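User: quick one
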Amino acid sequence: MSRDANVKLISPGAVLKQIAAAIPPDFRQNIIIVGSLAAGYHFFGDDPRLQVRTKDVDCLISPRIKAIPAGQAVADRLFAEQWQLRTEGGWGKPGDAQTPENRLPVVRLHPPGSPDWFIELLTVPESENDLDRKDLRLITTKGHFSLCSFRFLSLVEFEPGATPFGIAIARPETMALANLLHHPVIGKETMSGLIAGRRIKRSNKDLGRVLALARLTEGRREDSLLEWPKIWVAALQSRFPSHWRELAPRVGTGLRQLLRPENEADLEEARHTCENGLLAFQAPSLKLLEITGQRLLQDAIEPLEKISTAPARRTAAK
Amino acid sequence: MKEIRFEYPIENFPGFLADAAWGDTIYEVLVETKDARRLRTALMEMARVAASDKVRRAVLVLEEPAITESRLREEWQGAASVIRPELFGHLAMAIRQSGKWSGIPVSPDTREVPVLDEILRHEISRRPAPSGRNAEAHYEILRILIHQWLLGRGPFAINSLMKISGTSHPTVSRSLDRLDHYLKRHSDRSVELRIFPREEWARLLAVSDDVRGTVRFADRSGQPRSPESLLRRLGQLRLPAIAVGGVLGAKHYQPALDLIGNPRLDICLHTGRKAVDLSWVERLDPGLERTVRRDESPVLVIHTLRRADSLFQPGADGLPWADPVECLLDLHEAGLESQALEFLNSFPVTRDSPL
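Assistant: Done. Structure below.
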C-alpha cells in the first residue's frame, strides 16, 4: 500500500505532552486539541502500538473572549521555544499591519527539529450567526497572523475531555457532529495535499473521519452510538440556541448521500482516508464502512432528527 | 469401544443385511411394532442367521413396542419351542420402553446400552419423515401435544387441537393416527401424550429447518452486536407476532439451566399463513446478512410459526417468550444437546423420570 511519505505515524500521548509543555501554564486551560490527534488520544491513549497518521494538529483556543491574549501568549512562547513556521503552501510569511485580515496566514508551527507534524491555531466563532470563516488579527512578536474560526468549530468546544497534560481534547461526538454539519452535501473541493498518493474530496475525508469515529466508538463499547444524540442535542442547544432545530435535519444529509450506491467512488475515498488515518490498524472494507454509516444513521442521526421535531418543552437539554 | 457397523452383511446369507453389528453380535430393529406376526418372523430370521459361525449373539431390538411385556414373553416361549436350542441360545431381545431398557431373557448390560441407543438413533434418523404441507401440519400438531404434555395440562379436545394448529379435522386425525403409539385417548375424544415421542421428535429435528422456515443471519460488520443488544433493539421496534426463544427463552422457563453465555438470539415469528416479512432485520442491525453456510456462526436465527395460535407467553418489555417446545428445538438447532436434554428434564412431567 502506498503511503504519503510526508505523513508519519505519531504517538498521540507524546505529542499532546510536547504541545502542553510548550504552552504557558496559564493558557493550557484555553487549548482544546481537535481532529485525528484528539481522536487518537481518546481511543488509543498512551498505547505505543497504536499511533496516528497525521501531520496537522489543530489547537482550538477557547473561549473566544480569551482568543487574542491566549493566542498571542501561546504563539510568542512557541516562537521563543524555537518552533518553526511551516513554509509549505506559500503561507509561511507573517503579515503586517497593512495585510488585510483575510490575507493573513494562520499560525502553523513545527516543533523544533521535528518536521513530521505541525500545530495550527484556531478559535471558535463569536456567535451562532457567524456563518463562514472569520479571521481575527493576531499580532505576535513575529508579525501578524490570522486566528480563524469556522461556523461549526463552536461545537467541538462543547464539554471537551480532560488530559493529564492540562490541555483538553475535543469529544468524538462533537467532532463528528461538526464534520457532518460542515458537509451537508458531497462538495467538489479537494484537499490541497495528497492523502497517501490520492487526491481526495474534502467532504469525503471529513465524512470518512465521522465513520472512523463511529466505528471506534462502537468498537470500544457496544451501543455507545445510542448516547450520541443526547450529547448532540446538548451541544447544538448550547452553541446554536436559535438555530439548532434547523441545523438538526441537516446533520445526516451528507452522510446519506455518501452511502448511496451511485456514490461508491466517494465512499471509496472516505475508506482510503480511514485506512490511512484513524483506522490504519483495522483497515476497513467498503461494506464495513457502509454498515458503520447505516448504524450511525439509525442510532444517532435519526433519533436526533426525531428530537428536533418534538414539541419544544420536551427537548430541553437535561 | 468396538465400532458399530450398520447394514452389515453376513457371510453365507446372501441378501441378508443386519441392521447393525457390534463385534460378533448382530442387531435387528423393530420400531413401534404392534404386530406379533412380525415379531415371530424376525425371531425366526435371527435364529437362521445365528447359525453362522461369525455370529455369537443375535439381538432383536424393540423400540416402544405396542405389545405388552407378558405378550412378548409368550412370544419368546413360543419361539423357544420351535427353534433348535443350540440356535435359540444365541438369541436375545432388548426392549426400550419410555426410554428405559429391559430384555428377554436378561436386560442388556451397561456396556451394551450406549450401543443400543446409538443403533436406535441411527435407525430412526434414516426413516422417512412426512413431507411438504403435511409434514408442517403434522409437526405443528406434534409440538402442540408436547407443549401440553410438558406443562402438565392434561388431555386436549380434538377441536382445541384443530383451533390451535389451524388445521382441519382430517389433518388432525391423520396426525393423531401417526402418533397413536404415544397417545392416551379418552372416552370424551380428548387426547394426550403418555410418553415423550422420541422417534417423532428425532424426525422433527432432522427436518426442523424446513418445517420451521429457519433463517440465519451472520454479522458482516466485524463488530457483532450481542444477543442482548439485539434483544433490546428488537423490543424498541415494537413488532407484532414476535417472541424470544433459544437460550434466553429456555432460561426464562428454567432459570437454573446450565447455560453460560448466549451465542445468538433465536426469534420465533408467528406468521400463520401470511408471507414472511424479514425486512425489519435491517432496522434491527444493518450489519446482519442472511447466511446459508452452516460453518458460520449466526448472530440471529429466525424461526417461523405457521399454526393459528402462537402459544407465546407474555414477557417483560412487551416482548413475549416463545413456548418451551420452540426453545427446546432452538437448543438442539444450536447444537446445545446436553442443555436441551437438561431443559427437557427440568419440567415436572420429566423430572421424576428423566429422558
